[in-house]
Amino acid sequence: MTRIPLYLIAVLSLFIDSRCFAEDYSNDLQRILESSEKIVQEELRKNELLLNANEKSSFLSLEEMDEEGGLLVFISSSVPVESWQAHSKVLEKIGGSFVLRGMPQNSLKEFIKYVQRLKKSGIEASIKVDSTGFEKYQIKSVPAIVLETSEGFDKSTGNILIREALGLFSRKGSTREKAKKLLRELDNSWEVR
After folding, report:
1. Which sign does the torsion angle of CA 122, 126, 130, 132 carry?
2. 15 by DSSP, 3-state: which?
3. Among 3.40.50.300, 3.30.450.40, 3.40.30.10, 3.90.1150.10, what is the CATH number of 56-192?
4. Going residue by residue through the chain (193 aa), what tens digit of pLDDT does each one get?
């Protein structure tokens, strides 16, 4: 749901009160709405750039990620930063994203501050906000690790490392082949260091 800033509502109400003719009103209102939409889009674009200036893939939607299969770590701000850091190191090496249910205090400004604090503490993996992902994968507790492919998805919840979750998925999950591939990538990435 798009929230309209209070100052725009005030401007719109003054504008509406001052108009006498319906046809003029509808044309002018349409122009105001179009320019407001442009302003909102520009602000969102600025915030995207602020959150991850060099990481365009951080803004893939879950639907876009689903098409190729993805590794997701569902998490919340209540999870200790050490867990974020451990998961981030792995996500950075083999790809994947953190997923939050919502923004802290339902505020974009607070979300940006929170992400900036995480980035300063060494979290470089992408972070998405998507409450529908929590519903889709029936996430009841965090952290939860989800691997999805065209064959289905596997999920592991609790204080488990990504490597351990991938190990479980590779032995008895519906994402067996993708999990094995990611484990190989993870092993190779550690060897390179």
Report:
1. negative
2. helix
3. 3.40.30.10
4. 444 554 444 444 444 444 444 445 556 656 666 666 666 556 555 555 444 433 433 444 444 444 445 899 999 999 999 999 999 999 999 999 999 999 888 888 899 999 999 999 999 999 999 999 999 999 999 999 999 999 899 999 998 999 999 999 999 999 999 999 999 999 887 654 4
What gap in Å lies between CA 142 and CA 158, rounded to an integer? Answer: 6
- Predicted TM-score (pTM) of this structure: 0.66
Q: Are 79 and 114 in contact (CB under 8 A)?
A: no
Secondary structure (3-state) at 158: coil
Position of tokens 């008895």?
172
